[in-house]
Amino acid sequence: MKMVVRSILGAALTASMLPAAPVAAQTAVPAHSFAVGGSQFLKDGKPYQVISAEMHYVRIPRAYWRDRLRKARAMGLNTITTYAFWNAHEPRPGVYDFTGQNDIAGFIRDAQAEGLDVILRPGPYVCAEWELGGYPSWLLKDRGLLLRSTDPTYTAAVERWMVRLGQEVKPLLLRNGGPIVAVQLENEYGAFGDDKAYLKGLEATYRRAGLADGVLFTSNQAGDLAKGSLPHLPSVVNFGSGGAPNAVAKLEAFRPNGVRMVGEYWAGWFDKWGEDHHETDGRKEAEELRFMLKRGYSVSLYMFHGGTTFGWMNGADSHTGTDYHPDTTSYDYDAPLDEAGNPRYKYALLASVIAEVTGKPAAPAPALSVAATFPVSQIRRSASLWDNLPDPVRARRPMTFEELEQNYGYVLYRVALAKGQAGPLMLKGMHSYAQVYLDRKLVGTLDRRLGQETVNLPQRDGPVTLDILVENTGRVNYSHAIRTEQTGLTGAVTLNGQPLEDWRMFRLPMNDLSTLRLTTAPCVGPCFYETEMTVDRPADTYLDMRGLHKGQLWLGEHNLGRFWSIGPVHTLYTPAPWMKQGANRILFFDLTGDATDRLTTVNAPVFGKVTKIREAQ
Fold this sequence. Notes:
- By secondary structure, this protein is an alpha/beta fold.
- About 20% of the residues lie in helices and about 25% in strands.
- It is built from nine helices and 35 strands.
- Strand 6, helix 5 and strand 7 form a beta-alpha-beta unit.
- Helix 5 packs parallel to helix 6 and helix 8 (about 280-295) packs parallel to helix 9 (about 345-360).
- The longest helix has 18 residues, at about 150-170.
């Protein structure tokens, strides 16, 4: 090996001493360009229509990235749009992760390999039905910090993040030989505010991070264009099916000579726990896509493939700050590709429209992948949460998740109570789901969705231990509520109007379950349960969660996400690349588990009641 290295080095040194080749003999590689020319884009100086759709690298198993991108190209798309998810990449201040599932640069390179351009949306706010709209929750430890503002503490954190993101993606800009043709500044800021100083400051940050060396644009809903745009940047419009004529008219009135583009055309909708499953009219969406493309518009569909919000990362919808609607693990979105990456009827309709408008024959529809079912054992071992608590943190008052330096999962709050009369226990600002115990006996459940903050405690004939197990069911990702999305017990805790003090708090992020003390003894209550799925040959499947209650599930090392018996989604998508031939360990945590808990697999998702109505946004 050393001889080979020396030979290579020697050849290199010899070559370096030879006369330089005449300049005329060198062939320059022409640099590609992408720009706005009046109402259209110009690629390499020629008119160009962007036909794009959204996919999120964090919502698709990495082994399937190329498959999904190839299907996007086959539908006729020439571009893929994606957000950058700050909280996935910087879980703790200054600690960055761009590996594996978080390798955004790898995803962009895969898109380029499949012949697709990329529109990057770095945020820092992304919405996306994603936890806190993509913000790291540790920003909220400082209750004085104002997200999406010119607050110096906030902007300094954004600057650090954008510079670090730039290190990953700047080499992939078009001018550097990559596929990124455009970058979106912020995300629908007009729905939040109208502070032009904030947008200008963020633009300056983008430029310092190297993220603005090309087409930089803003994207807003039709009624918010003036509030969320800057006069010197192109402005594009976002809306859902049924809104095309009105929205494009508003964009054209706002920017008569500006570029014609739809930044998000909502070709589906997302689901929220305890509500209906959404399905939208693909025929109507195909008609509107034809209308937009024939009018000369560039268009990006949201979503092409929604995928799955694995782990703890679902967000929650809120418009007033008092309403709360946490999103499901499934992000199927009724998109052209379903959660497992298979084309639904919309795919062929949209492909036909694109072929018609572009004059390029539609590719054959991708073949469906066949999901399998596998046997799952009964519960083999279990572990009570009560017997697996870590060392507590002590404080006079309850601390939030952020103050405890915990992003996701659960926290158990414990306080001693003396003998006393029955009365109301008030958990002011409880975020977002709590089970209340006296001496480990469940006495009440509080659900932020239902506006619940009070449970009546019974009379106590002697000293007891009060335990409050609080789950972060997803921080709000929309509206001004994001600024106050501290999680856990965020306000005063009172019993009969008197504050409770001297708390012990047990952090339960559940990111390392290797130390659980599992036994064959039966377990009732908040428990971990171990089962085994036997796989003859790995294939996609769906875990049927209708035999469980509420909690979280892991397949091997992969956190597949939340389950909740209230639906509307009753299955967890389980991808083949995350399983192995033979025995696959499944571990799940059920808040109200017992011996009747039972898992099975099915070969298709199970949804509850369906609605065709997409809420106004």
